[in-house]
Amino acid sequence: MARRFRHRHVLTATLALTGGVPVLLVVAPSRVTAVVVVVTTSASFAVLNVAALSLRQRLVPDGLLGRVVAASRTLTYSCTALGALAGGVLAARAGLVAPFLLSGAVAVVATAGWWVASRRSTAT
């Protein structure tokens, strides 16, 4: 897959899908939409993980890889916990639609940020 698509393009597409597709639940709340959202986000997240990990392994020197992986996991798990807490607070105060809308907004900003930041590097 890396021969056909650059990591930058794969990461951009999967980042947008993983974060943006849950907004469909706001537009068309149904069981079918929920299944589509779960399948799409799960598949895109799996591809996102593989692409991100392979890029990290390619770019980070062997002697630092363990430290970089540990720091990345710490950051990821911390953000996951904070995001779950913030989503719960937001849903309690603004309704169940608000976290999904926020997810879409964050997905747009994160995808655009990644696209711009990754343009500077020729390795991706």
Strand content: under 5%
Q: Secondary-structure element order, as H and E? A: HHHHH
Separate helix tally: 5
Regions with pLDDT < 50 over 5+ consecutive residues?
none
Helix content range:
over 70%
The major pleated sheet works out as: none
Q: What is the count of β-strands?
A: 0
Provide a short characterization of the protein structure.
83% of the residues lie in helices and 0% in strands.
Verbal overview:
83% of the residues lie in helices and 0% in strands. By secondary structure, it is mainly α. The two termini are 13 Å apart.
Can you tag this structure with a few keywords?
124 residues, mainly alpha, 83% helix
Q: What is the strand and helix layout of this fold?
A:
Blueprint lengths: L6 H14 L3 H4 L3 H29 L2 H33 L2 H23 L5
Helix pairs in contact: 1-3, 1-5
